[in-house]
Amino acid sequence: MQLYDDERFFDAYARMPRSQDGLAAAGEWHQLEPLFPPMTGQRVLDLGCGYGWHCRYAADHGAASVLGIDASARMIAAAQERNAAPAITYRVADLDGFDFPQAAFDVVLSNLVLHYIEDLTAVYRKVYHTLRPGGCFLFNIEHPVFTAGVHQEWIRDDSGAPLYWPVDQYYRPGPRTTVFLGETVTKQHHTLTQILGGLLQTGFQLKAVEEAMPPKSMLSLPGMADELRRPMMLLVKAVR
Ligand SMILES: C[S@@+](CC[C@H](N)C(=O)[O-])C[C@H]1O[C@@H](n2cnc3c(N)ncnc32)[C@H](O)[C@@H]1O
To answer: Per-residue pLDDT tens for 146-201?
Structure first.
């Protein structure tokens, strides 16, 4: 079963601040938003759209059409409920089975999804194929420093305070089992060379690379200050 269709996981995800308050509650948004190309008249595809926050943003900023796909039927139902707009179509589809039509989109977005994908190169090729020449691929993936460690968790002292973040088996890409929102979740570790070099090998030009840091205004939230101790997300903008 798709993880995000699991009732307990879906309910726990729904309680996260970013699920309740959208982009404004996402620690990376202040860095991701400026990387968006102008949306006016654009045909946009969002891979793993979840609740559809980025689809809604694209539509609100003038996109001609937005297609949000997600493997989870529950997520797509939530997107239709919370972030519907005339320009947006939501569809239940797995990246693996989705038919990426040739040169059909100007912009492809993907926020916090690609670390669930084992074969990143295959997705890069499909995105390249589905973008028009000059089209933009903007994504946010969990950072290799975050994904490399075996359990994706701080090493803590006796009181439970974080001592350091373990980076191990860095050059061994592949599955990492972690506990996220109380459920055992398998993510995929990719090295920086795979993430950035893979784009270049596919033919993309790199336009921007940023490591997400929470804004000062969020540092008082529980656990947020620790997000300055190691990177969790890598934001990448590339052009076909
Ligand atoms: C952390 S959520 C991010 C959702 C949304 N992009 C956002 O930023 O709010 C990850 C999403 O990726 C979706 N997902 C994971 N693997 C997928 C796959 N192979 N194909 C399509 N969607 C997938 C999940 O169902 C989930 O909605």
So the answer is: 999 878 899 999 999 999 999 999 999 999 998 888 888 999 999 999 999 999 99
Residues lining ligand 1, Cβ inside 6 A = 2, 4, 48-51, 53, 70-72, 75, 94-96, 111-113, 116-117
pLDDT at residue 1 greater than cutoff 70: no
pLDDT single digits (tens) 79-89: 999 999 999 99
Instruction: Tell me the pTM.
Output: 0.95
Taking the CA of residue 4 as reference, the ligand 1 atom at the shortest distance is 25
Of 2-16, 20-34, 114-128, give the range with the top mean pLDDT: 114-128
* Domain over 3-148+192-239 is classified CATH 3.40.50.150: yes
Helix H segments across 22-95? 29-32, 53-60, 73-82
For residue 47, report the distance from its CA to the centre of ligand 1, in Å. 7
Instruction: Give, using CA atoms, the residue closest to atom 1 of ligand 1.
Output: 112
